Amino acid sequence: MIDRIDATARIHAALRRAQIVLLLGPRQCGKTTLARTFVASDSSAYFDLESPDALARMSQPMTALTPLRGTVVIDEVQRLPDLFPLLRVLADRKPLPARFLVLGSASPELLRQSSESLAGRVEIVQLGSFTLAECGAGRLDKRWSRGGFPRAFLARNADDSTTWMTNFISTLIERDLPFYDARLAPGLVRRMWTMFAHYHGQTTNYSSIASSLGTPTSTVRHHLDLLTGLLVVRQIQPWFENIGKRQVKSPRLYFRDTGMLHSLLGIDSTKALLSHPRCGASWEGLVVEELLTRVPHSHAYWWSTQQGAEIDLVLFHKGKRFGVEVKRADAATVTPSIRIAKEALGLKQVTIVHPGEKNYPLAKGIKAVGIEEVIRDPACVLDD
């Protein structure tokens, strides 16, 4: 059992501030388990909308919800999107007898409905797979190889973990995705996901992917945006600034869970991972996701020029810019690319994250930090 202290604290804080808290995350990331620490699953204030009993109780939602007090949990709310207008009415009662913790597999449609119906009443909390901090530095390699979905990470052995992830991806493609978009055949979706996996950590080339699959570019863009809304992948947009050089303009693509990435790439063990051509990109994605999940920031971008200068992350925090470069090399060095990025973007600090243990300065405003320090204190990338 992994104690998700940070996520629990964020939900408690959100429930104090807002009448409705929307807990969003991909399937099987632990939303339900976490919600049951707030309200027991056998309580009258707990509704799992994938259960026939809960759906029957919700046939008259006003009758079911109005008498409840305290915290009320509604799981898989995307199954009954018409609940949002009713929740707005219940959230406006004075005095307020109940607050609602609403769980869902994120989608652009779900977010659109909540923003339209619940404006000013809802706070959104995102939950992903286990972070490195939740797993602990001592299990870093296991977390990297298996990913952070609870059933994959906590499986008895590597074979069980691989089998679970394979079945999970099949379930997403064959059962869940048609709920949001039934236009694509499962076989085509699987090939598309595999293509996306090979672009992990790279600039997305929509036309190349579309040409390989024999589909329109618009289909590839739409499906990638759908996966982004479902919190399966992350698209990091490029930073644009007039610095007299033409810049790369496409987003960079990352699978948010390395276990899912490895399954799509056919990587079934740590040994296979270390010898795979995408090993460095996988490591980069692991660190990028940890930082974007845990480091305070208002915006995050990546930056590159056609001349070859680039930096993996540009984080904006309290009016300042910070750069992060992820390198899978024990001896971090200052490259010309990093110097160019620091000067061109006016970065207050550039941090090079590496898999070693030592932390040391490299130049003025540039330092190397080991992954264990990032796990202990992710905000170290914002320190001078």
Descriptive overview:
The chain has 384 residues and is of the alpha/beta class. The protein folds into 2 domains: 5-126, P-loop containing nucleotide triphosphate hydrolases (Rossmann fold); 134-382, no CATH class. Helices cover 43% and strands 19% of the residues. A 6-stranded mixed sheet has the order 9-10-11-12-14-13. The protein has a 5-stranded parallel sheet with strand order 2-3-4-1-5, sandwiched between helices. Helix 10 crosses helix 14 and helix 12 packs across helix 13 (217-229). The radius of gyration is 22 Å and the shape is globular. The two termini are 36 Å apart.
Question: What can be said about the biggest beta sheet?
Answer: 6 strands, mixed
Structure class: alpha/beta
Radius of gyration equals 22 Å
Q: What helical percentage do the residues reach?
A: 40-55%
Number of strands: 14
Mean pLDDT: 92
Q: What spatial form do the alpha-carbon principal axes imply?
A: globular
Low-confidence stretches: none
Indicate how many domains the architecture comprises.
2
| Number of H/I helices | 18
Strand fraction equals 15-25%
Q: List the strand order in the largest sheet.
A: 9-10-11-12-14-13
Q: Distance between termini?
A: 36 Å
